[in-house]
């Protein structure tokens, strides 16, 4: 099959890498939160709540014109009543210092979209920004630094942590619960692909890696560490990313595609999850409510108990955050260990 025909395949997408990252960032909280925790050294628990923000930014040029750009992600995470804003970029090109300039352009626009002001002061809050580098580069630092020199001579700076896909083995990915990296694991073999394409033993070795990944994912799903929707997303996006990266290696693409394609056939797809969620909401099914809220409510209550928050404050926060009636909030509180006064 020539390269043109491969690109005609519905599986092929010119933006496969960006699509994979944005799909997981936009739909899979249980993939996004561990990645953020790892990148920014946070300790977000199960009660952490993600709120997506708009990704369209208008970057201003020197001539006064504006250019519309789409960031890979812009979101907030609220945990223990503290909200932090984040901006992540997934980069498939080899690292260059211009990437820091682009991140700063995006950060500036994000800050402008949520400024605070009064009659004499305007305050801009910059997001926590990070960069995921898919391709190996000796030039890429562990952390980038953006420095600003103020008119009064004072300098301020902030760090841009960088995750390099080449630093992450299968074991490390699973130890750190960085399942969001799995679709990009194929990049660790990119330089070997031309040689691998001529050697079936090497292709079989690559397939063993993916068989191990899929087996371990099955276990994470079975133990509840991974949601069904996120499991589905990882498998499908791994297939899509691998298909694009191996476009010029027909033997590798066919063998890897056969394995992943067979796995995909057993998956229901996001449409099924979305329809089930909508049906549960419309019909008011108890299991739909439980799936949507109860796990978060339980983790939220456990965190508050651990922090020695008084029972009446826990009730109040439950009512506000989860839109519960007072009776329902009390019911959940008692169920998960809060001791109420009689």
Automatic annotation (TrEMBL):
Coiled coil ranges: 193-223
Name by which UniProt lists this protein: Transposase, YhgA-like
Record keywords: Coiled coil
Coiled coil among keywords: yes
